[in-house]
Amino acid sequence: MKEKSRECLNSCIYKYLTVIAAALVIMIKSMFFLAMLRTQNSSSLDFERMYFTPPPMWAHIAFVVLVVSFSFLFKRKGRNIYLILLNMVVSFLLLFDIWYFRANGTFLSFRHILYPDIFNPLGKNLFLVQPIDVVFFIDFIAIALIYIRQGKKKVSVKRQTFAFAFTFVFSVITIISSHYYIDIKNATNGEKMLFQVAWAPFQTMSNMSPLGYHGYDIYKAIYEKNAVKLDNKEVNNIKSWFESNKENLPDNKYKGMMEGKNVIFIQVESLENFVVGQKVYGQEITPNLNRLINNGLYFNSIHEQNNVGTSSDADLMVNTGILPIRDGSTFFNHPVTKYTSLPRLLGEKGYHSISTHPEVAGNWNWAEAHKGSLGFNEIWDIHQFNVDEQIGLGMSDGSYLRQIADKLKNQKQPFYAYMVTLTSHGPFDMPEKYKYLSLPEEFDKTILGAYFQSIRYTDEQIGAFIKKLDDQGQLKNSVIVIYGDHTGVHKFYPDRLKEVKLEGDWWQKDDKKVPFIIYNPELKGETIDKFGGQIDIMPTVAYIMGVDRSKFENSTMGRVLVNTERNATVLNYGQVVGLPKDEKEESLLNNALKVADEFIRGNYLKQVEK
């Protein structure tokens, strides 16, 4: 009797122990993976920083239980094979993920199967093995020993349909309820996130867990691919919008005035227009930009139009003249939508285009989108630079711009170089040695004082960059385009601004304006006071570089600000600013956000080319 009871107990333990053990192993490997992400070269384990924010652990566990639950549909041998194969698939997925992350700062995605052209956009070596990678496979020795030992025992394990149904349904309900509680109801007040894509892929991975990340990625890639199928009526409506948006004006003196010169874009982090030309305690905040305006076209009424993609939306708009999508980040959701982009337009004139960010390629998915959507010839991420100085979020503007100048010295001309700065990102913490403004201590500690110091620092580095181009003999043959990616201190710190005490009201208004400067030492300084937005930068620069309007007016929403009779634009949330000349223009602006959303999500240009 005791022998039968022991056998029954052993059989019961065997039925569930292998399943529980497999779930624990997958969970532990997933935690090891997360603990690797924020270490140097992802080559060690840091369990203190494995989660970017407090994760919904119940959902993480549910993802593992979900995939393991299918093992109950198999009998003894089949169950063992399923669990071993599942463990092996997860192990290799985590291994390949960490290799891809070391190279690109993001992870493998189902979109790489749908759109293979954006896989590994920088063309890097992906075989980046580290000794720590063995943690994904060390358990297989133990599994082999257990399997050999258990193989000698004749234990009957039947298919357990009820166990499958219970664990499957329980895990699905847990995941759905977690999504509702965290993402929809926001019961944690933003403390936790689950199915929400963050700017940095490692944060998204931390929120979702590896299995949750890839499950959601497959769903999202398929959904976005099939979400919008433009019918003939919608295609015609978009065509009609662009037709109505055209301005049939004769060319003027600005057409082609800089044709043939190199084009260099500097997208400045958080640069607002109100600092340009202003002084604080008797000192210029932007002395170098002020000097450039003396030999440049200065557009003083340009408004930010970014949506949730923030800086990446600026990348999109200034290169395509198209507003971002309404729901989510354009670069994450639609990295292969085709545009009539500035790199392509200049490429037709023999330009080699380079896009560069002082960060990993995966942040905001910028590298995939710059290659797949915008059509840049070459991409440089943080790995192409010597990170010899860091300030705030990453590489200092001084080091970055200095190295860019060195690289451009050897570029075949003409080229289009697109770059972004980072140091003036909030919260604007500058080292004392780089505080070029002499401010009263009390004011210097305010958010506005900190903002002025960070902008003054970046302004100094832009001046040094331009001087270096001049020393290299490239400046006269180059057009420098400088603008803000979005507003900064007013956008993110309005409450802290209320505590600031400073004379005058010139700094108080949140007018949503960013500066836009087109500079060349041979230009005559001119201020152009036209209401515009970031979508107007691309067509304006293209026109000055000699590109015919016919090349972009059927697929670009912006205006040529140096040849326009219109004086209004639309902000991100639909507000029209400026003075629309008639009801037709006002209607165009009111419909612009919807048209842009359909243009991008429906991949409009691909459809009309068919």
TrEMBL record:
Topology in the lipid bilayer: Multi-pass membrane protein
Entry binding sites for substrate: H425
Places the protein is found: Cell membrane
Membrane-spanning segments: 12-37, 57-74, 81-101, 127-148, 160-182
Species for this entry: Clostridium polyendosporum
Sulfatase N-terminal domain segment(s): 261-547
Name the record gives this protein: Phosphoglycerol transferase
GO CC annotation terms, alphabetical: plasma membrane
